[in-house]
Design goal:
heterotrimer; A mainly alpha (about 525); B mainly alpha (about 100); C mainly alpha (about 650); B: about 100 residues; mainly alpha; Helix Hairpins; about 80% helix; elongated; C: about 650 residues; two-stranded antiparallel ribbon; about 75% helix
């Protein structure tokens, strides 16, 4: 059992789908209950996995490596380190919460919807556990399909446009990734004579710098669209605005993390030299994203698109911290991925809750909700504050570590990035003011029902996590530290290698070493 | 021993009849049968060559083609029946929805 | 020494959680009992640890308490840990003490408010955050309190959230503070990457600081300036003072507690705490002193012409905070903290007194509609008068000792100059004028309120007047802990704080400054007398214009109507910020969204889609949908290819 825990966590939701196939499609409550129970049991499995995870060991854990299509060297290779562990936990938690939150929101096609959700869960976890590039690609693409349906079938008025935009953007990136992936596959064959898609083996392959640059770019584009890094972000607001609440939660909470996870799992360790070369580009795009996202968020009229643009800003922080290429920055980056999932997920849930009551998301339609819905407003405020990054909430730990790390690698980036902290307060508080403060101007807002038990149940776990990560982040940081160190040591080696290469072509060094080094130079 | 040419000429004639049937007929059912005819023309040629060269590969191929043809007929007929149910017609010219 | 210091902030936290989670389920009595008891317990524990501290020898007066590891990330390591040394002990006592008094007062003041429970919940959270701020043993935990008090300030300013102006003011306070926090964050980064720690013990060790920073070097100057930016945000100094006057939208006890006595002094505390670093950056010290004294006179001048009783006090607070920064800037950190303490007493009293007046006037805050309240509200009047005398610096009251100490240091210290002293002196005169203008307009003269209000005028209930009386006593005697040498005291306050002010004693200039201060006894006395005389003159002027010859004030206002308009309009700084920063930001953002996002990026993508769509429309007729056509083309194709193969192959 212990060896197969990853397989279990990944494919358990599929068992739920099989169960659901036997439930008649008119039995809505049964369908909902079954999907919730399946997601919840999967959460328990993942908690068990978390408990068994050895926090100090480096390298992959719970590894499974079985040949799948042995002719092409494709293996069913699973394994997790601290980074993927946390992301899997995030996925199982959000998936469970989403099942409860969609209880009343979905009225049509209930069965299809919950099947899509469970399929999505498998796809997402699959991406985080795959250690085989082919498998990774399969899950990466597989996850698109249920998301496409969730937006396209259960979405808002412009759902088709949004769904197609979402799929086309992502597909465009992943096709380039496929090419790069095959290139790597044949390159590895040329290098060792073995056909394999195994990531861990590819880590060890010395790729010439020129080729690295192109492969890095191909992978980076696929991931950048998913993150999304500015200027590839325009699919995000559309997808969020049109998606149903649960879709937005999963989209923001987990799907965007696939991009950042891809960077951390594939780009950084596999192409460290290219990574070093692209630090300025990615960092600057990340900073533009931080500031741009915040500014545009400020003038949005729809709460959901405001949150969507705030995601662009937050994910900019994640990328900035990652490309600081030091321990603090990268740990901050990983914890910020989790934070964003929790806080933004909660924000979307909250927006969904007022949408269910008022059937509008326009900021101007609200005001004074604090009076009619005090509990709701309290939750809204806590989540907003965590999104702003108030100390002792999760957002602070992430943003602080990211900026601390960035400051060590480049002060200008850190200063520019830190302005995002001010802007975040501007757009979030302004939104908060217009939605929950002020006088009630619309009569519809007067007799709104406050949150019921189910809705509180949805939000309370997230609020607990917000404070847990904010006050006692040590368990999380401790678990990711070995993994982060592994990746960083690869980058460090690359740094040394690059420095050596530079020295070799550096004429000054030749002059200094002329007498000593003639023989060696000829040997080159 | 009948020379190979006879088989090939018969095969070519069968194929021509089948092809003409597909091109000329508008009835989906007849088109399907014409396709069968073409397939069997190919089978005949294959089996003839196989006998001539004394290699069994051709026989294997023919069996596979039989299987495919059977499957095709089954699916094809099913589709035709569905189309007929929905549209009350099996005239191929009526189903040109792709054209603007 | 290790002691359970966490007990000090623990109780307000418990109070906050109890009141917050059971909001709407508790009676008013229970709510206020929980809130006041928790803060009272904090104060008692503060006192206990204070005496523990006193029992230690001078040089070893440090109590520590490591609670748990907060953020570990490689070499970065920060604990939730508390530190009680003389400086934080003073702060803890002032914060918990004044908070307790104001909590009691609030029972009366907020009695009829619908948000009673919410109010005390926020107030307890504030006390918790403030105690975290002053007890933290590292910059990051201090930052927790720093932002925490900012949050509470936001919540309490916007307490009456249905008023647009209130929620606007709260938002403004938070955002302006965030700009300061931006500086604080960056300052922390420099300190961490240079000294390798954010713990005060390491980062503020003179030996460590001197080994990693060059005195007057770029790094230390940048770090201290950035931290000072944080302080200007929190403590309402130029250029970030704009939020404090607006913050008067909150309930008056909040103004007293947060925006006068405690939170706004956090910046002064932080700089005094970081004295080791600041003493290594003379350029920053000059900036601190200049900003401080400029704020003092700038805000003081605005206070001269305001009619809203709370706004006068707000600008007065900004001005007094300017004094404290001036003190820090001239390396007289203890004097700054001394003034911080006395100011906490008398300014809290002034605000509470004004609250009592507003309470009686049924919410009226405009002094033009008050007057003659002296007889109606004797306790309020007398306590208010004591506070006014204290703030103007009448000898014998607390304000005199602390303010005089600052003026003297700004004159005599090597970091000071005669100009700083002079501006400080003029500000003292202004203070006397606007404070007595306020007293005369409110408590003397004819009763200018409408008859309905007049009938309901009453002295406030005991629950409000007793806190006033306690604060009045403190305003009088608060200064006697720091009687200067020249008046026969031995400045026990400064001596108590000495172990914390390592920076001053570490630097040669600091020693020198202290030595020269001790030698100029007669100058000190002359300056002291001079300032007292000046204050007296300005009090007389206020008496002349607002009691004896009321018409003269009007005439004066008419003659300088332009100047009056500028001062009354607060130099139009808010309008300036709005036009230069806020509006361009909003307009620019709209441009980015509508033009860049929608038009350019999406336009490009959708344009591609349209082009591809158009191209496929052209090819569409080829797919006729007629099976026979397809077959014919197919057959012809086969024949052509076969033919080619046969002919050419």
């Amino acid at each position: 059992m212990e060896n197969q825990i990853l397989t279990l966590v990944t494919f358990f939701p599929l068992m739920g789908i099989i169960l659901l196939l036997f439930v008649p499609k008119t039995r809505h409550d049964t369908i909902k209950a079954v999907s919730f129970i399946v997601a919840f049991i999967n959460l328990l499995w993942s908690i068990w996995m978390y408990a068994m995870f050895d926090p100090v060991a480096s390298g992959m854990q719970f590894e499974v490596n079985i040949p799948w299509v042995s002719g092409f060297g494709i293996h069913y290779h699973l394994g997790i380190d601290g980074i993927s562990l946390l992301l899997i936990m995030l996925t199982t938690i959000l998936s469970t919460i989403v099942m409860i939150s969609s209880w009343n929101a979905i009225k049509t096609g209930v069965k299809g919807y919950f099947i899509s959700m469970l399929l999505l869960e498998t796809g997402m976890i699959g991406v985080f556990v795959s250690l085989d590039l082919f498998l990774f690609y399969v899950f990466w693409e597989a996850m698109l399909i249920p998301m496409y349906f969730i937006i396209g079938v259960w979405g808002g008025p412009r759902k088709i446009y949004a769904a197609i935009k979402f799929v086309l953007f992502t597909m465009f990136g992943s096709l380039l990734m496929l090419v790069a992936l095959l290139y790597l596959f044949f390159m590895y064959h040329g290098y060792t004579g073995e056909y394999t898609f195994d990531m861990l083996k590819m880590y060890e392959m010395p790729i010439p710098l020129g080729a690295q640059t192109y492969i890095f770019l191909a992978f980076a584009l696929a991931f950048a669209i998913k993150v999304p890094i500015w200027p590839f972000h325009t699919w995000l607001p559309d997808a969020h605005v049109e998606a149903p609440t649960a879709g937005s939660v999963i989209l923001a909470g987990v799907l965007l993390k696939m991009g950042t996870y891809g960077f951390i799992r594939i780009c950084l360790p596999m192409f460290p030299e290219a990574t070093l070369q692209f630090v300025p580009l990615i960092s600057i795009l990340a900073i533009i994203g931080i500031i741009y996202g915040a500014l545009v968020a400020m003038v949005q009229r729809d709460v959901k698109s405001l949150v969507a643009f705030s995601s662009v800003s937050h994910l900019g922080f994640v990328m900035l911290g990652m490309f600081a290429l030091n321990l603090q920055g990268m740990e901050g980056s990983v914890i910020q991925m989790i934070n964003h999932g929790i806080s933004t997920g909660a924000l979307f849930l909250i927006v969904g809750m007022i949408y269910e009551r008022r059937h509008t998301r326009m900021i101007a339609d609200f005001g004074g909700l604090s009076k009619s819905m005090p509990v709701f407003s309290t939750f809204f405020m806590i989540v907003t504050l965590s999104s702003i990054g108030l100390p002792f909430t999760n957002g602070f730990v992430g943003e602080f570590l990211i900026l601390l790390g960035t400051f060590a690698s480049n002060k200008v980036y850190a200063v520019l990035g830190a302005t995002g902290v001010i802007l975040a307060a501007c757009y979030m508080l302004w939104m908060l003011q217009r939605v929950i403060f002020g006088k009630i101007t619309k009569p519809e807002n007067e007799n709104l029902k406050d949150l019921d038990g189910r809705e509180k149940l949805v939000l309370i776990p997230l609020v607990i996590l917000i404070f847990w990560i904010g006050i006692y982040p040590k368990p999380f940081l401790r678990r990711m530290e070995p993994a982060v160190n592994d990746i960083l040591s690869r980058v460090e080696q690359a740094k040394v290698k690059l420095a050596e290469m530079e020295n070799k072509t550096d004429p000054v060094v030749y002059e200094d070493d002329r007498q000593l080094g003639t023989v060696e130079i000829e040997g080159e | 021993m009948i020379p190979i040419g006879h088989f090939l000429i018969l095969s070519a004639m069968l194929f021509a009849v089948g092809a003409a049937g597909v091109i000329i007929s508008r009835n989906l059912l007849i088109m399907l049968m014409s396709i069968e005819l073409m397939l069997n023309a190919a089978n005949l040629a294959i089996i003839a060559f196989s006998r001539m060269n004394n290699i069994v590969d051709g026989h294997v191929f023919v069996f596979i083609v039989f299987a495919v043809a059977a499957a095709e007929a089954a699916v094809g007929l099913a589709i035709i029946i569905m189309i007929f149910r929905n549209r009350e017609s099996i005239n191929a010219d009526n189903f040109s929805l792709l054209k603007r | 020494m290790e002691q359970p210091l966490y007990l000090i902030p623990l109780f307000p936290l418990i109070g906050f959680l109890l009141n917050g989670l059971l909001l709407g389920r508790l009676g008013k009595k229970t709510i206020s009992f929980i809130a006041c008891t928790s803060v009272g317990l904090s104060f008692l524990f503060g006192l206990k640890f204070f005496f523990d501290l006193l029992s230690l020898p001078d040089t070893a007066r440090i109590i520590e308490n490591v609670f748990f590891t907060w953020i570990p990330a490689g070499q970065f390591h920060v604990n939730v840990a508390f530190l009680l040394d003389p400086l934080s002990a003073v702060m803890v006592l002032v914060v918990s003490g004044v908070s307790f008094i104001i909590h009691i007062y609030s029972i009366g003041y907020m009695h009829d408010d619908a948000g009673y429970g919410r109010y005390f919940t926020y107030l307890n959270l504030f006390v918790f955050s403030m105690l975290m701020l002053v007890l933290a043993d590292n910059y990051l935990l201090m930052f927790v309190g720093w932002e925490g008090v900012g949050l509470c300030s936001y919540l309490l300013i916007g307490f009456w959230f249905e008023k647009k102006s209130a929620s606007d003011a709260g938002k403004k306070a938070f955002i302006v503070n965030r700009i300061g926090d931006f500086g604080f964050l960056l300052g922390m980064f420099i300190i961490f990457w240079q000294t390798g720690s954010l713990d005060f013990k390491t980062a503020l060790d003179p030996a460590v600081a001197h080994s990693v920073f060059a005195v007057g070097g770029g790094m230390i100057t940048a770090a201290t300036l950035l931290m000072f930016l944080g302080a200007t945000g929190k403590s309402a100094q130029i250029p970030l003072y704009v939020w404090l006057p607006d913050a008067m939208e909150g309930p008056t006890p909040v103004s007293a507690l947060i925006h006068a006595a405690t939170m706004v002094t956090a910046g002064v505390y932080m700089i005094a705490r970081s004295n080791v670093l600041y003493m290594m950056a003379p350029a920053t010290m000059a900036v601190v002193a200049i900003v401080g004294v400029a704020t003092a006179i700038f805000a003081g001048s605005i206070a001269l012409a305001q009619n809203d009783i709370k706004r006068v006090l707000a600008y007065s607070t900004v001005s007094q905070l300017g004094y404290m920064f001036t003190a820090c800037g001239v390396a007289a950190f203890s004097a700054g903290i001394f003034h911080l303490m006395t100011h906490a007493f008398f300014k809290a009293l002034l605000f509470l007194g004004s609250g009592s007046v507003i309470h009686a006037m049924a919410g009226q805050q405009d002094m033009r509609y008050m007057g003659g309240l002296k007889k109606r509200m004797p306790i309020t009047f007398w306590t208010f008068l004591i506070a006014t005398l204290a703030i103007t610096g009448i000898p014998g009251l607390s304000g005199f000792f602390s303010k005089d100490e600052i003026l003297w240091k700004s004159f005599s210290s090597d970091y000071g100059s005669i100009w700083i002293w002079l501006i400080g002196l003029i500000t003292a005169g202004m203070t006397a004028f606007y404070m007595f203008r306020l007293v005369f307009l409110t408590f003397y003269g004819e009763e200018r309120m409408d008859s309905h209000t007049r009938e309901h005028l009453h002295e406030s209930p005991k629950v409000m007047t007793v806190p006033l009386s306690i604060l009045a006593v403190l305003s009088v005697i608060g200064g006697y802990v720091g009687i200067p040498h020249i008046l026969g005291g031995d400045n026990r306050f400064e001596k108590f704080l000495e172990p914390v002010m390592k920076g001053v004693h570490h630097s040669v200039e600091g020693e020198h400054a202290l030595a020269s201060a001790a030698h100029n006894g007669s100058t000190e006395l002359i300056l002291m007398v001079g300032s007292v005389v000046l204050v007296a003159v300005f009090i007389y002027l206020a008496y002349h214009f607002y009691i004896k010859n009321i018409a003269a004030a009007g005439k004066l206002r008419q003659r300088f109507s332009g100047l009056h308009k500028i001062i009354y309009g607060k130099y139009f700084v808010d309008e300036l910020y709005n036009a230069v920063i806020v509006q361009p930001l909003v307009v620019g953002s709209k441009f980015l969204w509508k033009i860049f996002d929608v038009l350019i990026i999406d336009g490009f993508i959708n344009g591609m889609a349209v082009i591809i769509g158009d191209m496929s429309t052209g090819l569409r007729p080829a797919q006729s949908g007629i099976l026979r056509t397809y077959t014919t083309i197919f057959l012809v194709g086969v024949i052509v290819i076969l033919g080619i193969v046969l002919i050419f192959g």
